[in-house]
Amino acid sequence: MRGASFMNRTLPILTVLLAILVIWYAAAIGMNASWQTRLNDRANLVDVPFTEFAMQTWAQDRPVLPAPHQVVGEIWNATVALEITSKRSLAYHGWITLSSTLLGFVLGTALGVGLAVIIVHNEAANRSLMPWIIASQTIPILAIAPMVVVGLGSIGVTGTVPRALISMYLSFFPVVVGMVKGLRSPEAIQLDLMRTYDATSWQTFWKLRWPAAMPMLFASMKVGIAISLIGAVVSELSNAAGGGLGVRLLTGSYNGQTIQIWAALFIAAALAAVLVMIVGFAERMVNARMGARA
């Protein structure tokens, strides 16, 4: 039974993965064919068999679309095969991005929860803050990031803090919106019941509103930590000397190193997936602690 259950869960995943790989390799042939044809013409290679031509498109140094094995090889060479302190190491740049992401996420979550509590308990704050919070997210992050990084750099604040502030700017929004909805989710009859118990505002908050907001909090945190990583990567584009996966993407773009770009993208995606899984694990632990059903 366990084997059958395992196959039922993993077989669809493996099928989708296999389909993606087939499509990816086929797309690599099509997108790299033009350049490979030029290379073969220069080398006076004619009537190249299709299988050999396909292998050539999957082995170009600077392909338009690298093949999956080229990306995996680049990730291996830039992580395991290099010292972690090397500035060519993806692990080194990944840690810079991760540290900014985590700090920004913690600050953003704390800010979002704090604003939500104020908004729920103060009507004036609700009417004055929410429009500004929503309006803040209409400003393109690509316009804000250079101003923050350069502005703080002019007063000597460099390194992780400016990047974390950009991450915080993005991650606080889903948390504040989710928490406002969650803290307001108790029904009127439940609030009336707390009043009949002569509960204080703090008791109503701690014993009713806060537990009711937990599902929304963790759902918001999953979104928040993912866009926190995006904020960290975008902020790194404004300071190439600071390192990070954003810098790897930028230098790869300048030098036409598409394999390097794809490798950095995969590392960023893997980091986001792991961080979301950690938040999901924390959610299950909190739910179990609160006695909630799975």
Structure description:
The protein is mostly helical and 294 residues long. The chain is built from eleven helices and no strands. The chain has helices at 2-42, 50-57, 68-77, 90-121, 123-136, 141-154, 160-183, 188-196, 201-236, 245-255, 258-290. The relative contact order is 0.11.
The DSSP helix count reads 11
Rg calc: 25 Å
Average pLDDT for all residues: 90
Helical residue percent band? over 70%
- The helix/strand order is HHHHHHHHHHH
* Structure class: mainly alpha
Number of strands: 0
State the shape: elongated
End-to-end Cα distance: 22 Å
Main beta-sheet strand count, sense and barrel state? none
Strand content: under 5%
Low-confidence stretches: none
List keywords for this structure.
294 residues; mainly alpha
Task: Annotate the secondary structure layout.
Blueprint: H1 2-42, H2 50-57, H3 68-77, H4 90-121, H5 123-136, H6 141-154, H7 160-183, H8 188-196, H9 201-236, H10 245-255, H11 258-290
Helix pairs in contact: 1-2, 3-11, 4-5, 4-7, 4-9, 4-10, 6-7, 7-9, 9-11, 10-11
Summed up:
The chain has 294 residues and is an all-alpha fold. It contains eleven helices and no strands.
